[in-house]
Amino acid sequence: MSAAVSQTAVSSTERVQAAGLRARTASKRLALLSRAEKDTVLVALADALRAAVHRIVNANAEDIERGRIGGMTESLQDRLRLTPERVASIAQALQDVASLPDPIGEVVRGSTLANGLQIKQIRVPMGVVGMVYEARPNVTVDAAGLGLKSGNAMILRGGSAAASSNAVIVEVLRVALEAHGLPADSVQLLDGGHEDVDALITARGLVDLVIPRGGAALIQRVVLGATVPVIETGIGNVHVYIDSAADPETARAITFNAKTHRPSVCNAAETLLVHRDIAATFLPDALKQLADAGVKLYLDDDSRAIAGDVPNEPVTDELFGTEFHGLEMSVGVVDSLEAAIDHIDRFGTQHTEVIVTENRAASREFVARVDAAVVMVNASSRFTDGGEFGFGAEIGISTQKLHARGPMALPELTSTKWVVEGDGQIRV
Amino acid sequence: MSAAVSQTAVSSTERVQAAGLRARTASKRLALLSRAEKDTVLVALADALRAAVHRIVNANAEDIERGRIGGMTESLQDRLRLTPERVASIAQALQDVASLPDPIGEVVRGSTLANGLQIKQIRVPMGVVGMVYEARPNVTVDAAGLGLKSGNAMILRGGSAAASSNAVIVEVLRVALEAHGLPADSVQLLDGGHEDVDALITARGLVDLVIPRGGAALIQRVVLGATVPVIETGIGNVHVYIDSAADPETARAITFNAKTHRPSVCNAAETLLVHRDIAATFLPDALKQLADAGVKLYLDDDSRAIAGDVPNEPVTDELFGTEFHGLEMSVGVVDSLEAAIDHIDRFGTQHTEVIVTENRAASREFVARVDAAVVMVNASSRFTDGGEFGFGAEIGISTQKLHARGPMALPELTSTKWVVEGDGQIRV
């Protein structure tokens, strides 16, 4: 059994369509599994990964070595690296998924109609879910686990940087699935080039949903090229707005945490907006703390005037529109809450937006008028996360409005079906 | 004020993008309206339509005359025709929407996290919703009413057959909106050609959702060409499966109702599948009743052998795959429930599928294994309808799995937003 959809002489489209058909067949089995059956297999998959730790770490070393030769930065190498401890933690994540409630079969709504028909809307699997992602191989395992728990067959297309790690991981999972009586094709890995991605996102009738997870270029490619339904994820140009009625110490702590706690991820803050009335009180200390932590600051004229001697460069509209993924931050002074909302409306990506204020009217207006997946009052943007929200897992953070918005976990990987039960009702 | 986005020398793309920008601006107002404000305006819109009944009927007469000259069938002319009574009923539909609960602001989920953060997921409008549809002008009013109630700005692109009716209706609505202090651009009508549709479905960042409603060609065009999110609607190759344990009289009544009650619509049945063990008991009378009602029958060899002398033609795979929209029906005998499910899996469009049976195990298996928006036991497929389900209105029937599946009404026109409230929480 090959761990991946093997490359042959046939075209990418034919290979991917064949993979889609096998996934479709597997999905019919998965849709009918009980929670107990799924949880047993999830635990077995975790065991299989633990048992294969050396093979996985060795394959990962090949990826790292290839990356090193190719000039990959140390920090990217570190993101990619799998140690025995990290493999153990990835395996544990599968067991955590086993402990989550089964979304399938949940009754979402229901009623008995006047004519006696009993209608209920229940959660069912999507069917076949494609996932196109970059870098970290733990996403491979998370996607397989969440897919199995939600009754979906997964077609995964990981980044080339993690190709060896992903190939071994998926092979281990497939062998373990089959050993427990489930179709190996519940999880498939595409190992072709970009043409595999193009074939996957246009496989209408075979693929029910594609989730891209990665940088802006990857997401654009998928969204613009897809003819199957897509959920966009993860572009986060996050703003922290410090209202005139903010508590300065709370504002400083939230700003620092949102920017520096983990600057590479999508829920990190990129822009700090400060109300003019609190700028002189708040900004000098806040900017100094950021600069001391190595944050490169881009300031507008008003903030520079009160920034003291912190190193800075002038901000531009382009910088205001940039997700830095690192220790950089744009800073602007605004005249009003209204101006802050307008700025967010213009430059934001509808991911997470934060207001810091002790004023009730200001927080209510910000929450009502800012259009984003997550709007926060007096909390760090870093809390936009499936784990933090108590979902137990996360397959990505949706920044679109259709189907799912914000952190996505098991319910977001489901569709619904109406079941109507009668005793011979006809329409008159 | 023009009732429609006027045709000028500028390109279709520029005109539609300008319409999108105006809709975006209007949507920000609509998102903040209270239920009372929206309901007041909905009643006023209904009054305005009633007051304009003669203008609307006259404009409609132009459409009918153009259709007649162009060779439109009598039945299509009848679908298109607006009488004073039909205008009154369209106006009443707006008042019915006013009486429905407001979906906006509904708290879908929520909890208080261990760290004290209070999170809640609330319904918010989509923003700007495009709708591309054919024929009946009542859809124009329904879309405007459901859009307003759900806080969305609507960009409508009706069929050319109803161009005059739609233009007057939208102008009446826009004047009434403005008279009540709401932006006229809450409802816009595109009156350009197919290039307007292409511009609408690729207006990323301006249009949050497009719903196509019409024939298969229209839906294909939108789904394949769109780069904005789409909800597919309405293709219904509906099957009625008569199980061996069916009550023959119930089976006959449901089959007849599903096929003949309103054969032109998507929830009408197209294929009758009959278990071999009940075929001789059930089929002769059922087929005779269908034939007597004018249904053209396409029979497989097994059903023809027991059909008696009802007129029929041989069924083909192509006919099994056809949504007739009229008094035609394919009929097949199957050896088992399994075979019926396989047939539905192969030819169905995941709209509505019906089993008639008194056997509990058979109904449970059918419900579990048939993948469709609506699965019915002992009831006519004609009940797949927002009104019948108690939604009070319907904007279409989704046959896709993402976001909405089955009849769509107000909640399906919304997205959600997470609101997170804290008192200074940061991630550690």
Features:
Aldehyde Dehydrogenase, Chain A, domain 2, 2 domains, 428 residues, alpha/beta, 20% strand, globular, Aldehyde Dehydrogenase, Chain A, domain 1, seven-stranded parallel β-sheet, disordered N terminus
Named at the architecture level, the CATH assignment of the largest domain in chain A is: 3-Layer(aba) Sandwich
The CATH topology of the largest domain in chain A:
Aldehyde Dehydrogenase, Chain A, domain 1
Regarding quaternary structure, how should these chains be classified? Answer: homodimer
Shape of chain A: globular
Determine Rg of chain A (CA atoms, Å). 24 Å
Helix content of chain A: 40-55%
Major β-sheet annotation of chain A = 7 strands, parallel
Count of alpha and pi helical runs of chain A: 15
Alpha-carbon distance between the termini of chain A? 57 Å
Let me know the number of strands of chain A.
Answer: 16
Broad structural category of chain A: alpha/beta
Uncertain ranges of chain A: 1-9
Q: Supply the number of structural domains of chain A.
A: 2
User: Superfamily at the CATH H level of the largest domain in chain A?
Assistant: Aldehyde Dehydrogenase, Chain A, domain 1
In terms of DSSP E residues, the strand content of chain A is 15-25%
- The order of strands across the largest sheet of chain A is 10-9-11-8-7-12-13
Instruction: Find the biggest chain interface.
Output: A-B, 68 and 68 residues
Overall pLDDT score of chain A: 94
Name of the CATH class of the largest domain in chain A: Alpha Beta
Keywords (chains A, B): Amino-acid biosynthesis, Cytoplasm, NADP, Oxidoreductase, Proline biosynthesis
InterPro entries (chains A, B): Ald_DH/histidinol_DH, Ald_DH_C, Ald_DH_N, Aldehyde_DH_dom, G-glutamylP_reductase_CS, Glu-5-SA_DH, GPR_dom
Family (chains A, B): Belongs to the gamma-glutamyl phosphate reductase family.
Subcellular location (chains A, B): Cytoplasm
